[in-house]
Amino acid sequence: MPINGFFGNPIQVNVPYLDLSNNLRVKYGRNPKSIRNRLNRWTKQSVVPAMFGNYLYFDPAYIGRLGADATWAYNSNRPEQLNDGETFTTKRFECVRYQFEDSLDLTVEQAANFPVQKIVTEAIAMRAMLNRTKKMVDVATTSGNYASANVVTANTAAGGFLDTGTTANPVILNAFNYARNLIQLGTASSFEGGEFGVLMNPVTARKLMATRELREYLMQMGNSINMIAGNKDDVYWAGEGLPSFLYNAAVIVENATYNTNNIGAASDVQSYIFPDNTLVFFVREGDLDLEDGSMFSTFTQFVHEDMTVEAITDQWNRRIKFAVTDNFVGKMTAQPSGVLMTNIFS
Question: Does the reported pTM lie above 0.85?
Answer without folding.
Answer: no
